[in-house]
# Entry
Amino acid sequence: MIFKEYMTLLLLGHIIGDYYLQTDMLAKKKDVNINAVFLHSVIYALSMLAVMLPFLSVTTVLAWLLASLFHAAIDFLRYSVQRMLFPKGKIPEELGRIIFLFDQLLHAISILLIGLIFGMKYIAVSELPPFSALFEAIGLPGLSIVSWLFVILFLHKPANMIVQAIIGDYASPSKKTAERDRNAGVVIGTMERMVMVVLIIIHQYLVIGLLIVAKSIARFLRITRERSFAEYYIIGTLASTIIAILAYQLLP
# Structure
């Protein structure tokens, strides 16, 4: 499906540029410094170009330009609104999580629209000869490699940040406990989502249920004693499961 080909390339470029190549320091500076927004936009455009490079054509170049411009426009809009509402740059934590989720939703919609525009043109993504020989030597089509790379990277840092933003209000009241839960959740969540994707691929849906049950048994005492943790656990597990299912949809 041509639409899926463009979506895979655009999403991989997005998570590399917006998550893996954006440090926490740069993300914080973007809230108060317009130069940081510009720097991030340049890094994002270069990361998107790097992903497109093995499949370079007129359509992929246009898709890259549109994706980079849309991303920059959304980030500059976010900066302008935040500076207008919070001149000192101090954004409440709860509102910060909402802004992050809304920001990522806008980026996802822009990528979806670009994918639809170029997917409707029925111009398939093709590999450049030098890269085609490399992919042939590896034994996998280039787009399959891109799909798997996207899923692996997406299930780690981006997925963890999205889940943490969703369940933020249900975190432990103790800062120390909350930090411990977060660190453990990052590792467990990443492994859980990757195992889920593998189980979906081999059609072992019952094992997914058993995996969730096993995790619930390990946390049973705390779930029964702390209502806030029970809500935290349920929402986090559901969010992780939905993310794993969505990631699977982009696999070849």
Summary: The mean pLDDT is 87. The chain has two domains: 1-138, 155-252. Residues 1-138 form one domain.
